[in-house]
TrEMBL record:
Organism: Pontibacter locisalis
Main location: membrane
InterPro entries from the UniProt entry: 6-blade_b-propeller_TolB-like (IPR011042), PepSY-like (IPR021533), YjiK/CarP (IPR009722)
SUPFAM superfamilies reported for this sequence: BT0923-like, NHL repeat
Descriptive protein name: SdiA-regulated domain-containing protein
Pfam family name, one: PepSY_like
Keywords: Cell membrane, Membrane
Amino acid sequence: MMKRFLGLVLLTVLNGCNSIWNRADIPEAVKVRFTELYPTAKKVTWENEPHGFEAEFNVNRRERNIMFNARGELLSSSEEVEAQYLPEEAHNKIRSRYAAYEIEEVNRVVKQQQTYYEVVLEQGTHEFVLILDSDGNLLNQLQDTQRADMQKASLMKLSAPEKVENLLNSPEVRWELPSELREVSGIAFLQRDLLACVQDEEGAIFLYDLNQRAIARKINFAGPGDYEGLSVVNNTAYVLRSDGALYEVANFLTKQPKTILHESVLAATQNTEGLGYDAESNRLLIACKGFDKSLGDNKGIYAFRLSDKKMVPVPVIKVPLAQERLGRAGKKTKNRYSLLQPSSLEINPATGDLYLLDAANHRLLVLNRQGQVQKSLSLDKGQLRQPEGMTFGDAGELYIASEGAKKGKAVVLKFSERL
């Protein structure tokens, strides 16, 4: 009886303060609960969102967002806080991995009895957002446009930690590539301290010395073209052109390499970028950034048989686009094909799994031989601007190459931890 009486008193008070109710469709249960929590709040903006009723207001000059359901139950809250209130582990990660960025804003989000931190990092005009848990573990990284979509519902679209994509571990070593490789598009590990590299426009294989941090040799194999992938099998290098054609460069490390062109049998819309050696089946696998409408809601991975040097015109692996791990929360897509746009393909020699680098969606995918995504790892956009090439070393370490900006340098990062 007393609780009901207090509720009636609150309703009387809040109905006399209509300045905080800018909408007529806010349920009375929501009004009562909000007034109980924030009796002194003024200038409150309300929105009827798909997930509930959201209030936006300031407390001590700091923005706060609260989400209720129609019964007046608190679903989530978001409040702006000082950077000093971040967990220590979060501070350590930001200092070590984003030293060039400034913390512009920090929001503490409470949802489903769990606390998250949304950290906005800025460098000049470049801005992105980190999502961390209460222990400072990095859960996801978003562009600021994605963050705006998520904030419409006070991060209601953010999945629980176990469903959020993981971030690839911190790199062990970083190399800046010379200007000739600013548009690096494919890499292959040859031996200790030596990488073979190709770039978008020039028909040449560059041997890059990781120890000396310099190009050791340049091997011409063809004229200008759009070269996207590279794979080495014994003494032969294979270079993939964007239309699906393959250049076979036999004895490429000798003084007189021999080049043979294998024409493409793929659709013009495929736009091939990924090339990986499948030792188990003695073939090269080709991944397409583009699409073939005849495959429906699938993307195909094709094969070039090394036994007879023939390209198989139908996919040897189909990747269904309707998989949950290919969805992108808070991100609009042009069409279903944009959910998967491989820029590089490799096969992990230890597990046999397929690794697809997706520069457009800024992530690394691990697939089984049936085309099912087993793991999705977000890539750090501050470190890998446009990841285009990937290869495994002798010890299972992963190397990822990223193109540079017009006035920047391409980089290669080495990741030693198992994924």
